[in-house]
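Response to reviewer comment R2.3. The reviewers asked that we include at least one raw input/output pair. We reproduce the pair for Plasmid partitioning protein RepB 5-1 here without editing.
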Amino acid sequence: MSPKGRDILKSMVGAVEPARPEAPSAPPPHRPSGAVKAMNLSLGRLGEEAAAAKALRESLASGDKVLEIDPAAVEMSFIRDRIPVDEDPEFERLKQSIQGSGQQVPILVRPDPVKAGHYQAAYGHRRLRAAAEIGIPVKAVVRKLTDEELILAQGQENGPRVDLSFIERALFARRMDEHGFNRDMIAKALATDKPETSRLLQVAQTIDPEIILAIGPAPKVGRPRWLAFAEKYREAGGQKKAQAAMHTAGFDARETNSRFDIIWKALEEKSAPQRSEQTLRTQGGAQLASVTRSGKTFRITAKSAAFSEFLARRLAGLATEFEEENEGK
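Raw output as returned:
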């Protein structure tokens, strides 16, 4: 874009912020995961200035007006798509940019369906938060949107971006499902196909949300590791292992990807077999033997010589009886 063209755009609505390209109508693109996704975080922003200009032109051409609204009058979307983190370098960079150059691209809001004079954000939640923290009005386009239209706008604004992690998308899918949206709607909002939607829901519906939120977005952890995590979590004792690891000293202070690794290692540890003990007594209360079971181990320790002889005589018969009962099984 030429300097002259950029100046024209700035004069229409403040400075132009790098916006996210709108989701294409073509089949959803391949989504990188894990370390590849982390590497793409910066590469995906190279063409954003041109995309911002395009989005602004389209918005103005459709007759939308950009208003300045008090951030306190704007509520978050009724379904969150991000996992909050204590330290967010990207947000801090965005905040510094807005502080220095002003908000460059408006957010999208709808009139709040319950509170008169208030609004509900479809997308642009970080720009909204940044404006609130700086103490300036937020620039916004106001449209009347149904719940479905709001979720589609929210999901498709995030769709082309690479900075929503797999687990954030999975949790977003679960929240949409809990609000009654069908699979087709969830797939459209996520700009993905039904098999991938099923995988996202499989992970998010298996793992307790408390565990997911404790781990955080984990941007370097992709689909394969989260699917394996869900399988381990589903095993006997998996939930207890994850809970115990989550409460270890220093867990909260670790970086989000490291928190995933801590719980993953806990899930991989083999559980010690449960041990049970029982005492056999006569009707008169005399002790005959103690019985110990641990995994596949079954041990009888006779406390009476007579009972020991009795068991020895019955062992062959017990083996035959066992064989007859299990024949054909």
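The chain has three domains: 1-163, 165-271, 275-325. The two ends are 76 Å apart (CA to CA). Further pairs are available on request from the corresponding author.
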